[in-house]
Amino acid sequence: MNQSTTLDETSVGRLAALLHDAETNAREVTKITDALPDLTQEDAYAIQHEILRIRLANGERLSGRKMGLTSFAKMKQMGVERPIYGFLTDRSCLVDGAELPMRDLIHPKVEAEISVITSHELRGPGCTATEALAAIDMVYASIEVIDSRYRDFRFDLVSVIADNTSAARYVIGAKGAPAALLDLRNLGVVLERNGEVLATGAGAAVLGHPAASLAALVNMLAAENQSLPAGTLVMTGGVTEAFRVDAGDTVHVTVQGVGTAELKLV
Ligand code: 0L1
Ligand code: MG
């Protein structure tokens, strides 16, 4: 990241508590860079890591990792050249077909994603897409519900990293498929709302290949002296753009030759 920190520990704790409270109580806050325009990406990840620490201390379990801003179109829109990462916990996990009350969220959007489970530890720096691909065991259709805690969905890269990349809930399809049987780059993905096709895409929309996204995650974790343990669930990033949803909507994702994932907003 090559950026220095501008925040002391107390400020990291204060901002993490603010964003954690906003997430748990579905309350909007002003984007944090309005008051602190010099915040760096390193500060932002420090805040995100502190939110994870708070949530683990409250009894949640780390259930996986997610990649964000993985489509070239979204990166261009945000004026960034690299994707970002966040964490998943068991509290955010919904079973396939679950009902999700709108009152638990602020202004949710959904993304169709390809998720994977790794078979062995991956360690960067220098992890390649080929190495990452060799570590992908199972593949699943999945839905990410993103719900930026920032008022009016106004954010910049630094504020969104601190806000755990807008992660809110996720659904992993009940049935997956072994990666060895699939061509992840060419996997077709269909996102539907109430039976109507909202968007279609392919695995290649995710940084050129979902394994490239996994490798990018491993290399970003290496910058924090962390590896990615065997058996980690990774949501590799949106294949399609994100769509607003409301009570009464049923969201359905199909990944060709893999399976489906469904969610009902109530
Ligand atoms: O998972 C994602 O790509 C979310 C990125 C954060 C930006 C947003 O909330 O749209
Ligand atoms: Mg996403």
Automatic annotation (TrEMBL):
Tell me the organism: Paraburkholderia caballeronis
Q: Which GO terms describe its cellular component?
A: cytoplasm
Protein name, as recorded: 4-oxalocrotonate decarboxylase
Q: Does the keyword Lyase apply?
A: yes
Domain Fumarylacetoacetase-like C-terminal positions: 82-264
Pfam families named in the record = FAA_hydrolase (PF01557)
Q: What is the lineage of its organism?
A: Bacteria, Pseudomonadati, Pseudomonadota, Betaproteobacteria, Burkholderiales
Keywords, A to Z, come to: Lyase
Q: Name one GO molecular function term.
A: 2-oxopent-4-enoate hydratase activity
Give the superkingdom in one word: Bacteria
